[in-house]
Amino acid sequence: MNYEKQYYEYDGFWSDYETSYKNNIEKINISFEFIQPDVKTILDAACGNGIFTNMLIEKYPDLKVVAFDRSEAALKYVKAEKFIAEINQMPFKDAQFDCVVAHDVIEHLPVGVYEQALKEIARVAKKYIIIGVPNDEKVLDRSTQCPSCKAIFNYDLHMRSFSKEKMNDLFSAYGFKCKQIRTCDKNTFFIGHKWYVNIFYSEQKKEFKAPICPICGYSEVAPERFSNVGHRAIVNNKTATGLFAKLKQIPKAIWPKRSFDYEMVALFEK
User: Which of 46, 47, 45, 55 is nearest to 22 (CA)?
Assistant: First the structure.
């Protein structure tokens, strides 16, 4: 049983279209701005529930848009021409699409698959590539532990982090030059966030924050516990009440904070 693949068949990731829109709209709008005038065909690689694809065909009805994903659960929501496929084995011809777009996918890929996926994206792209990834993510900060096998993993199944420097050279081996990088989706965090959570929300550290363990298949999913945030699985905790809950709000008001852009979008040209 491929539990890692089964992870992406959890419909809770894909069914909440409103949340998908909210958490991806800035990245999508940047990607729209990156689409060059000479583009006539676009491939949305590993399209998920098609939030980008579906908005694309509405905004640019004259473009030929094709999408694929490995998840049958995700593809149910895609309105364009679509295929079930793996990103490291695309069923398309060389340079078949003027532009290939891949949002929130390459950070999920293990060694071997990742390298082949980059090669495949470059192979089927005729002139442009648009890549969206988390911006300089601290992968281990978003980890959970399986109660059964005790494996510790990033609960979004992110396996690598990307800086602007890394993005600049992402496709240079295949003749594509990075033309522009933009960041978006500003997030605000408490300084010393992990220490803060350990003090005031220690019970959350024990919660299993994934629909299924990719190692052993353990699952304790209740549909109301997860919301679709574009592969950012979070637990929907009930609002705490009582005196202690009110006291915990006081540090939030005075605790120093910092902000940074969570997402990064890059345009490459051949």
Answer: 55
